[in-house]
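Exercise: predict the structure of this protein bound to 2-acetamido-2-deoxy-beta-D-glucopyranose.
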Amino acid sequence: MFLFSGLSLLLPAYVLVTAQAVPQTIHLQSRIPPAAATLRRRALDPVTVPLADFFLGTDLQWFGNITVGTPPQTVSVVFDTGSSTLEFASTLCGASCDNQVKFDSSKSSTFVDRGTTSSITFSTGVGVDPVVGANYRLTLRSGTDTVGIGGLTVPATSLFLITNQTAKFGIDPFSGIQGMSARAQGLFAGLIAQGLPSLFSLFLTPQAVGNAEMTVGGIDTTKFTGF
Ligand SMILES: *[C@@H]1O[C@H](CO)[C@@H](O)[C@H](O)[C@H]1NC(C)=O
Ligand SMILES: *[C@@H]1O[C@H](CO)[C@@H](O)[C@H](O)[C@H]1NC(C)=O
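Solution:
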């Protein structure tokens, strides 16, 4: 059982090369609750989703499904503690994404094309693949759409469609990356804004055991004893 709080960065699958470990300052202040405190939002309940294991000689990465668009299309993503954005293969991507399920933005009534193109380069965490540099490169186009996980949804979530990728990404049995870092934007920031506790936990098992899970917004206390 691994527990991740908002400020932990453990087991990164992919890490943005440009990311810096900058100390974070949390500004605290006390204040008198406003008279309309009864309007305070109700916290969302945690949700648990199954994870599949990317096994390549050893247990490498655990991935699961989110939904994107209206009607929702299923997009498989690795939940990555080393990055903070969401990007996944799209029908704008040619042969380099042919191994993956591609999201079709033209079939989503809520997709908004933001039109900005960019590229990002990743390195990987220890034990995944010690390659640094242009071997892990994604070309992206920005947009927004409704994104969901485990039945929770966030409208107008920032995301990036993959329009090209290097072969290192082409072998992945999932279509994209959902960043979970302390500075995660998009889906998780949106869920926290809706009242979901800023916490997630992972039950990571070897492939032979299976039934790995991620709980978003809480901890599955049935998965361990003695905490
Ligand atoms: C993701 O969804 C697909 C169906 O679209 C399903 O076959 C697969 O088992 C799901 N993966 C996980 C980890 O839940
Ligand atoms: C995709 O990227 C590869 C390099 O990984 C490049 O050779 C190719 O020209 C690019 N394709 C497009 C359509 O940009």
